[in-house]
Amino acid sequence: MRSHQALGQAVVQRYLAGLGCIFTMKLAHGCAAGARSTQWQADVGPRPGPEGGPAMPTVHANDIDIYYEVQGEGEPIVLIPYLAADQACYAFQVADYAKQFTCFTVDLRGAGLSGKPACTYTTELLADDIAAFMQAAGVDRAHVAGLSLGAATGMWLAAKYPALVKSLSLHSAWPSTDPFLRVVVEGWRIIAQALGSVTDMAIKGIFPWCFTPELYAARPEYIDSLADFVRSRPMPPVDAFLRQSEAVLAHDATEALGSIQAPTLITFGARDLVTSTRFADRLSAGIPGSELVVFDDCAHAPIYEKVPEFNLRTLEFLQRHSGGG
Q: Which CATH architecture has domain 4-320?
């Protein structure tokens, strides 16, 4: 079995080099008024470049263009990114998930290559976007997973559109924003505006909340590779980040939790401070029958800090809730 470091370096290098092959599905819209036909097309080739590359996979849903990528075979799983990140943030998970599932990785409104309209963003609106995306992409029902903002979006999606969600995985989630989380996010907003760069803010401002001091000390080259990965991605402009972060600040799904019907996995990093286990009881009590997993010795981002264990535990949950209807 490949080590955590080897897996991380291989996947990061794959994305940085832009050599990954992707399976994309594109929609062709009918010309007649009110008509829309869906045409599926499989493309295997180089990653689309920012300039002069092949047409990028997007759908127009909920009045915005939504960028996505598809990899793997099996039941569909929709992976929803965290604050400011694009769909490639789940590279380490897709490397394993795609062996058993068809992975739809999506850029949220305000990030990546999706639309960034100047309006008020809420986590409920982001969930509406994902529901519209699934309909446009022909995904009738899927496993849904997200970390942080992606989890906040996922819980609204499962509550409002239960028929779309076969299982729900909420990583580093919170039911409603509390004073501590508000102070942290407001600090990120100040840093982004002061630096004029969401990329620099993420590396200097968000990273220290995502990883333990021990990881910084023991594996500085790994932190550096993750920073290079962020620099290589299409990060949002500051104004779009401010709109997305407003959705974090305003998030309150407390009353919606009881409407979640899908089997639900809730995970935390034991040393997370941003969305710590202080939220575990409220989430577990609010979502009947949910399962709780806490990853030791990692902070807000177990998806990077404990890749093999995270993938193993989350895949076990997904496999238990695969098949059937």
A: 3-Layer(aba) Sandwich (3.40)
